[in-house]
Amino acid sequence: MTAEARFSGRAAGARGLPGFALIVALTVAVGIVLLLVWSGWVVPARSIDGQADALFPGFTAESSACPAGGLVVTSLRSDSEAAGDGIEVGDCIVAIDGRRIETLDQARRYLHNDAMPALSLDLVHDQHRRQLKLARNAGGAHGS
């Protein structure tokens, strides 16, 4: 056996170990993500009617720099209960069911574990605070 053949054989074996370590690391990472989703710490975004995140009934919101803090309403379905009750794009959601909300992740975690038949929102619009109740649909998920 030539020196080249022995060298190439060792190089191939040396490449196999890092590849195996990468597979193990990826398997562990996927397992951790699945455990976090199962435990409720990470809630994947859902898609309903083409919306990127159907967390709220009939509208979408995201973390922003609202003067009042909280989330800002970014889009609204015109035929939704939320639109009928007067929510507008640009409104700030400062609390859900009386709990202060600062980020979209906080809202996701809370709503993922919330089983109440209605959703109570504290909104700020033009420096006026008001409370609004929205019903869940028959499936128990937020949305109308």
UniProtKB/TrEMBL annotation:
Q: Which UniProt keywords apply?
A: Membrane, Transmembrane, Transmembrane helix
Q: Which Pfam families match?
A: PDZ_6
| Listed transmembrane segments | 20-41
InterPro entries per UniProt: PDZ, PDZ_6, PDZ_sf
Matching Gene3D superfamilies: 2.30.42.10
Classify the source by domain of life. Bacteria
**UniProt name for this protein:** PDZ domain-containing protein
The PDZ domain covers: 58-113
